[in-house]
Amino acid sequence: MHNTNISRRHTTGITLEPSVHIYLDDLAQRMRCSRSWVLNTIVYEYAKLMEKRNLMPLAGRLPESKESVIKL
Protein backbone atom coordinates (compact mmCIF):
# COMPACT_ATOMS: atom_id res chain seq x y z
CA MET A 1 0.00 0.00 0.00
CA HIS A 2 1.22 3.48 -0.79
CA ASN A 3 2.25 5.90 1.89
CA THR A 4 -0.70 8.06 2.91
CA ASN A 5 1.55 11.14 3.03
CA ILE A 6 2.10 11.02 -0.74
CA SER A 7 1.21 14.70 -1.10
CA ARG A 8 4.12 15.63 1.16
CA ARG A 9 7.05 16.28 -1.10
CA HIS A 10 10.62 16.74 0.05
CA THR A 11 13.01 18.80 -1.98
CA THR A 12 16.51 17.39 -2.01
CA GLY A 13 19.72 18.06 -3.86
CA ILE A 14 21.59 15.20 -5.44
CA THR A 15 24.66 14.94 -7.63
CA LEU A 16 24.34 12.85 -10.76
CA GLU A 17 27.07 11.52 -12.98
CA PRO A 18 26.99 13.29 -16.36
CA SER A 19 25.84 10.19 -18.25
CA VAL A 20 23.04 9.58 -15.73
CA HIS A 21 21.94 13.21 -15.97
CA ILE A 22 21.80 13.02 -19.78
CA TYR A 23 19.87 9.75 -19.69
CA LEU A 24 17.42 11.05 -17.09
CA ASP A 25 16.75 14.23 -19.09
CA ASP A 26 16.28 12.22 -22.29
CA LEU A 27 13.96 9.73 -20.61
CA ALA A 28 11.89 12.50 -19.01
CA GLN A 29 11.55 14.26 -22.35
CA ARG A 30 10.51 11.07 -24.16
CA MET A 31 8.00 10.21 -21.44
CA ARG A 32 6.75 13.81 -21.28
CA CYS A 33 7.21 13.76 -17.51
CA SER A 34 9.38 15.65 -15.08
CA ARG A 35 12.82 14.39 -14.12
CA SER A 36 11.56 14.21 -10.56
CA TRP A 37 8.67 11.93 -11.54
CA VAL A 38 10.97 9.67 -13.58
CA LEU A 39 13.55 9.42 -10.81
CA ASN A 40 10.91 8.74 -8.14
CA THR A 41 9.37 6.05 -10.35
CA ILE A 42 12.72 4.37 -10.99
CA VAL A 43 13.55 4.29 -7.27
CA TYR A 44 10.07 3.06 -6.33
CA GLU A 45 10.10 0.27 -8.95
CA TYR A 46 13.63 -0.78 -7.96
CA ALA A 47 12.54 -0.94 -4.31
CA LYS A 48 9.54 -3.11 -5.23
CA LEU A 49 11.82 -5.45 -7.16
CA MET A 50 14.30 -5.77 -4.31
CA GLU A 51 11.56 -6.31 -1.71
CA LYS A 52 9.92 -8.96 -3.91
CA ARG A 53 13.23 -10.79 -4.17
CA ASN A 54 13.89 -10.28 -0.47
CA LEU A 55 17.23 -8.67 -1.30
CA MET A 56 18.99 -5.93 0.64
CA PRO A 57 21.67 -4.62 -1.75
CA LEU A 58 22.10 -1.38 0.19
CA ALA A 59 21.99 -2.93 3.67
CA GLY A 60 25.25 -1.25 4.63
CA ARG A 61 23.72 2.16 3.91
CA LEU A 62 20.28 1.72 5.44
CA PRO A 63 19.35 2.19 9.09
CA GLU A 64 19.14 -1.08 10.96
CA SER A 65 15.47 -1.94 10.74
CA LYS A 66 13.40 -4.87 9.59
CA GLU A 67 10.90 -2.49 7.99
CA SER A 68 11.18 -1.27 4.44
CA VAL A 69 12.46 2.24 3.99
CA ILE A 70 9.97 2.76 1.15
CA LYS A 71 6.42 1.71 1.99
CA LEU A 72 5.17 -0.39 -0.92
Provide structural commentary.
There is one protein chain. With 72 residues, this protein is mainly α. The protein has a domain at 18-52. It is built from two helices and no strands. The chain is globular and about 30 Å long. The mean pLDDT is 77.
Short description:
With 72 residues, the chain is mostly helical. The chain is built from 2 helices and no strands. It has helices at 18-31, 35-52.
Low-confidence stretches: none
Oligomerization: single chain
- Output mean pLDDT: 77
Please state the CA-atom Rg, rounded to the nearest Å. Answer: 14 Å
Question: How many helices does DSSP assign?
Answer: 2
CA-CA gap between termini: 5 Å
The biggest sheet amounts to: none
Strand element count: 0
- Tell me the β content: under 5%
Structural class: mainly alpha
Task: State the helical fraction.
Answer: 40-55%
Shape: globular
Order of helices and strands: HH
Give the topology.
Blueprint lengths: L17 H14 L3 H18 L20
Helix pairs in contact: 1-2
What labels would you give this structure?
single chain, mainly alpha, 2 helices
